[in-house]
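Translate structure to sequence.
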């Protein structure tokens, strides 16, 4: 690291010492990982409208991006495979590019109002299977491709992060007037001349209204 922070754990020996101070996981936590999609995981995926998708380039550069649609938008093909349709986005396709160099993937499925989440790890591949794409069509528009995941690990994650953050508690939400302005952020970061935050806001709204599929 270029910044001289103190107490950084950077070696295996330091990690082992640190690990011993944390303690061991409970038998339930240690043994909860399964290698296939059982009926409980299938039911969770069926009811989930949102997931986070984590990938990494072979050079180590990481990426996490959201995927969301109507509950059940992810298709469970069998106990070892699922299919995630790729809806129109910003065309950067960072996650997809990572998969070409490194197929390892991590998924975190959420259900609104439920604190526990479902984590799935495995291998990801770009799929243009016509049958899968057609089955994923919305409003007559099929995706151009999707992500086929070969499942290696499935397990539930506890609700402590959601309880601490109050994520599903509307009383903890900020008023809209004090939320960060994403249009202003985009104008500052993209540095496109003669473009205002108001214009970007209009373009975002138009895209959210007319180009979801």
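Result:
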């Amino acid at each position: 690291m270029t910044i001289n922070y103190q107490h950084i754990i950077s070696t295996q020996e330091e990690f082992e010492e640190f690990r011993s101070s944390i303690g061991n996981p409970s038998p339930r936590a240690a043994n909860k990982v399964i290698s296939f999609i059982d009926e409980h995981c299938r039911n969770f995926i069926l009811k989930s409208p949102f997931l986070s998708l984590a990938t990494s380039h072979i050079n180590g550069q990481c990426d996490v991006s959201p995927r969301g649609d109507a509950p059940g938008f992810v298709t469970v093909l069998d106990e070892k495979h699922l299919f995630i349709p790729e809806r129109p986005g910003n065309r950067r396709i960072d996650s997809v590019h990572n998969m070409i160099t490194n197929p390892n993937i991590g998924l975190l499925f959420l259900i609104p109002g439920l604190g526990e989440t479902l984590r799935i790890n495995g291998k990801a591949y770009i799929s243009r299977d016509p049958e899968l794409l057609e089955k994923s069509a919305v409003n007559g528009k099929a995706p151009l491709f999707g992500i086929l995941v070969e499942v290696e690990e499935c397990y539930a994650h506890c609700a402590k992060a959601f309880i601490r953050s109050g994520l599903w508690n509307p009383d903890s939400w900020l008023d809209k007037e004090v939320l960060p302005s994403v249009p202003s952020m985009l104008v500052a970061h993209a540095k496109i001349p003669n473009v205002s935050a108001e214009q970007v806001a209009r373009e975002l709204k138009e895209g959210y209204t007319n180009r979801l599929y």
